[in-house]
Amino acid sequence: MQIWSQASKLAAQTPAERNRYVDFLRSVSILVVIVGHWTIATAYFSGGSLHFGHLLQSEPQTQWLTWLFQVMPIFFIVGGYSNGVSLESARRKGTDYGGWLAARLNRLVAPLLVLIIAWAVFAVTMLLFGAERETIQYASQASLIPTWFLAIYIMVVILAPLTYAFWRRFGFFSFWAFVVVAVLVDYAFFVAKLEWLGWTNYFWVWLAVHHLGFAWRDGRFDNHGKLLAYAALGLVSLWVLIFKGPYPLAMVGSPDPGLSNTLPPKITLLALGIFQFGLLLALENPMRRALNGLRLWTATVLINSMIMTVYLWHITVMIVLIGLLYLAGGLGLDIEPGTETWWYSRIVWILVLLLLLLPVALLLSPLERASRGRDSAPPSPVRQVAGAMMLCLGIALLAMYGYGGGPIERLDLMSFALVVVGAGVSGLLPSFGKKSQ
User: Fold this and answer.
1) How far apart (Å, rounded) are the C-alpha atoms in residues 428 and 423?
2) What gap in Å lies between CA 254 and CA 277, rounded to an integer?
3) Residue 236 falls within a domain, yes or no?
4) Which tens digits make up the pLDDT trace of 341-388?
5) Per-residue burial over 41-69, b = 16 or more CB atoms within 10 Å of its CB, e = otherwise
6) Are residues 281 and 226 in contact, defined by beta-carbon separation less than 8 angstroms?
7) CA separation (Å) from 46 to 41, 51, 211, 214, 351?
8) What's the distance, CA 149 to chain centroid?
9) How many domains is the chain partitioned into structurally?
10) Which pLDDT value is given to residue 106?
């Protein structure tokens, strides 16, 4: 296949000093998230109607699976490592903050804009063809859920030069400072009932996890015994917080409408991140040796070349497939979720979705490999940050309410405008330049 040969050629040109394990973890973590979403989202056709559900709610005994599927901490750790590398590279090349930020935002925002605009078109089309507003809202909100992660990660990227300087100056004190703030916020959430304050843990929790990537980049962890001890400490802390504390079992989604480990984030995600960090770094040396093999590394390069696209579009592909099966009389959707037959059918379900997602990824992934033209000067840092903040707010609102939903009328239009205007202010709305090598 041409795409494999191209990836193989790029893989063969990889510098020897590159930590391939970072790229491997990025690709695997996103693929695990995708499989998890495809598994826990249920659609059941019965009595001529389609019933959407959530496996964690209908089958509470499956909530322990989220300890395996919640791998977003890994992505933030990998992001910390990569941002540390790029900041050091920018400093060596004399690239200022504006130039560095423009390059980082471009790869994140380009594929995101396509999804947001595409769903605006889908929503209008569905409305014109007589679809109910509730259906439009549900489908769009479900499809845009993956974008919540980018809303906070973009903000973490904006702060990366500052937090990296914090790390370089104070080392692990800077990590524990974020941890302490996150703990205090959770205390205020549960004890003082200041639930609004809990939303600030989108910063404190993920900044702390992101800091672990800085520590990894600086080679602070080279003792396997200590790494396994950290993993054990994280796992024990997680167990205590859930089974002796007020936190729910599920690490993904919100099976309990009144309480969630992710909405807003809780320190349980920190404990999980420390567990994953210690365990995965203990495996780094054998995995780096394995990744010296061209076949495994080529597969990693290929997946990473389209990772943002497959992540952003995987639920949209599932929603479209469910819609087509519903129109076909509920074909394949008449198996009751949670039954033995349903579990066996998940293998076919995931394989079909992968096959459908592949052409979408091949068509749209060039956007995330595009770069700004070398002759195009980046907007000022003030413009970029202001625009990115607008864009992140619009993304967060669309991920929470979708098109057609929300507590106030026309919130979707305002959210869409925030995304588009924010991208324009940041200099990310015009056409993109050449593919990066």
Assistant:
1) 5
2) 24
3) yes
4) 999 999 999 999 999 999 999 898 887 776 555 556 888 999 999 999
5) bbbbbeeeebeeeebbbbbeebbebbbeb
6) no
7) 16, 8, 48, 51, 24
8) 4
9) 1
10) 86
Q: Per the domain annotation, does 208 fall within a domain?
A: yes
Which tokens go with 318?
């599932």
Termini Cα distance of the chain: 20
Instruction: Give the structural domain span for 390.
Output: 2-425
Buried b (16+ CB within 10 A) or exposed e, 75-89: bbbbbbbbbbebbee
CA 244 to chain centre: 29
Q: Which residues of 188-200 are buried (b: 16+ CB within 10 A; e: fewer)?
A: bbbeeeeeebbeb
The single-letter code of the amino acid at 113 is: L
- Is 431 part of any domain? no
Q: Cis check for the bond before 111: say yes or no (omega within 30 of 0).
A: no
| Surface-to-core class of residue 358, CB atoms within 10 Å of its CB (0-12 exposed, 13-18 middle, 19+ buried) | middle
For 115-128, the pLDDT digits (tens) are 999 999 999 999 99
Asked whether residue 240 is domain-assigned, the answer is: yes
CB atoms within 10 A of CB 342: 16
Nearest to 143 by CA among 327, 348, 323: 323
Q: DSSP characters for 367-393? A: GGGB---TTPPPPPHHHHHHHHHHHHH
Residue type, 205: V
Place of tokens 């917080």: 241
pLDDT at 434 > cutoff 60: no
8 Å CB contact between 340 and 329: no
* Single-letter amino acid, residue 263: L
Phi, psi at 52, each rounded to 5°: -90, 145
- Lowest mean pLDDT segment, chosen from 124-128, 300-304, 353-357, 427-431: 427-431
Report the C-alpha gap between 101 and 87 in whole angstroms.
Answer: 10
Q: How many angstroms from the chain centroid is the CA of residue 187?
A: 26
Which helix (H) or strand (E) segment holds residue 327: the answer is: helix 307-327
Q: Are 326 and 279 in contact (CB under 8 A)?
A: no
Residue 160 to residue 315: CA distance in whole angstroms:
29
Q: How many CB atoms lie within 10 A of CB 283?
A: 14
Q: What is the DSSP string of 284-307?
A: HHHHHHHTTSHHHHHHHHHHHTTH
Instruction: Say how far apart CA 223 and CA 72 lie, in whole Å.
Output: 24
H or E stretch at 251: none
